[in-house]
From TrEMBL:
Signal peptide: none annotated. Pfam families: PhyH. It comes from the Bacteria. Transmembrane segments: none annotated. This is L-proline 4-hydroxylase. One of its GO terms (molecular function) is iron ion binding. Its cofactor is Fe(2+).
Length: 266
C-alpha cells in the first residue's frame, strides 16, 4: 500500500495520518482472538496494570503466527518504507490492551525520546504504525495526539517510573499546554482494522478506560535499517536487536491464515 502525495504532505504537516478500515473484520477477528490468548498466558512479555489486567504484550511477532504476519504486512510496511526511502526492521512490537474498566493512563510523551535515551537510536528515523483491534471510541481511552508537535524536536522529559507499571519519559504540563495552544488535540476513532501512523516525535498519550469496552491497539515500531540502535539498555524483547530488513508477506496472508485457522477449529 502506497501513500498519495496528499497523504504524505498531511503527514509532514500534522505528524500523523489516519487510514480507516485498512484491514477487514475477518482479518481483525483472528488477531483479537490471538491477543486475548496472549493476555491470558503468563509470558514475561505480558506486562500488567497494578490491578492485574493486561497492559501490553511485547514482541508477539516472535511467538505468534498471526502477529508475525501482521508485522510483515505490506499495508503497514510499505507506507513507512516509502516515507523513509529505505528498508525497515522491527524496533518494538506491542499489543496494548487498555482493558475494560482497568486500562490505565499513558502519560504525555514522545516515543523518540525513549528510543534515543534508553536504546541509543541515533535519529528519529523510526515511527509507529498501529492497527485498531477493537473499536476505538471517544470514551474508551483513545490515543490522543498533539498535531504538529513533531516539529519541536526531542523535548526535555522526566523518567516516570511510578505512575503506571510502564516506565516512560514524560513531558511537563507547561510543555504540553504550550504545544496544545498551537496544535490542539485530536483523538482518531474508528472501527477495528483502522490504521494510524505517527511521527516518532509526535506528542501523544491516553486516558484510562473505565468503560466495559476494551481498546486493543497493536503498535509496530519500524526503524530504518541504517538507524539501528547503538546502546541498548532494555531487554531484547522490548527493544529488538535483530536488524535484518523485514521481508513483506503477500497482501492476503493474514486472510489466508484467518481462514485456515477457522477451518482447523471447525
Ligand atoms: C504508547 O504511547 O506507546 C501507547 C499509548 C496507548 O496505547 O494508549
Ligand atoms: Mn508512545
Amino acid at each position: 500500500m502506497k501513500l498519495t502525495a496528499e497523504q504524505l504532505a498531511k503527514f509532514e504537516e500534522e505528524g500523523y495520518i489516519f487510514l480507516p478500515e485498512c484491514f477487514s473484520p475477518e482479518e481483525v477477528e483472528v488477531l483479537r482472538t490471538e491477543a486475548e490468548g496472549i493476555y491470558h498466558s503468563d509470558r514475561k512479555e505480558v506486562w500488567r496494570e497494578k490491578s492485574g489486567a493486561p497492559r501490553t504484550a511485547f514482541a508477539a511477532h516472535t511467538y505468534n503466527e498471526a502477529f508475525r504476519i501482521l508485522g510483515a504486512h505490506p499495508r503497514l510496511i510499505e507506507p513507512v518504507e516509502q516515507f523513509f526511502g529505505e528498508q525497515l526492521y522491527m524496533h518494538q512490537y506491542k499489543i496494548n490492551a487498555k482493558a475494560a474498566f482497568d486500562g490505565e493512563v499513558w502519560q504525555w510523551h514522545q516515543d523518540y525520546g525513549t528510543w534515543a535515551r534508553d536504546d541509543g537510536m541515533p535519529d528519529p528515523r523510526a515511527m509507529n504504525i498501529s492497527v485498531f483491534i477493537d473499536e476505538v471510541m471517544p470514551i474508551n481511552g483513545p490515543l490522543m495526539l498533539i498535531p504538529r508537535s513533531h516539529k519541536h524536536g526531542t523535548l526535555a522529559a522526566g523518567h516516570d517510573k511510578q505512575t503506571t507499571s510502564y516506565p516512560l519519559w514524560t513531558l511537563e504540563h507547561d510543555t504540553v499546554s504550550r504545544l496544545v495552544d498551537e496544535g490542539g488535540i485530536v483523538a482518531p476513532t474508528g472501527k477495528p482494522g483502522s490504521v494510524l501512523m505517527f511521527h516518532g516525535n509526535l506528542v501523544h498519550g491516553s486516558a484510562g478506560n473505565i468503560t466495559p469496552y476494551p481498546r486493543k491497539i497493536v503498535y509496530l515500531t519500524l526503524n530504518s535499517v541504517s538507524n539501528y540502535i547503538r546502546k541498548p539498555t532494555r531487554p531484547e524483547w522490548i527493544a529488538h536487536q535483530d536488524f535484518a530488513p523485514i521481508q513483506t508477506v503477500p497482501d492476503d496472508a493474514l486472510l489466508d491464515y484467518a481462514r485456515s485457522h477457522r477451518l482447523a477449529a471447525e
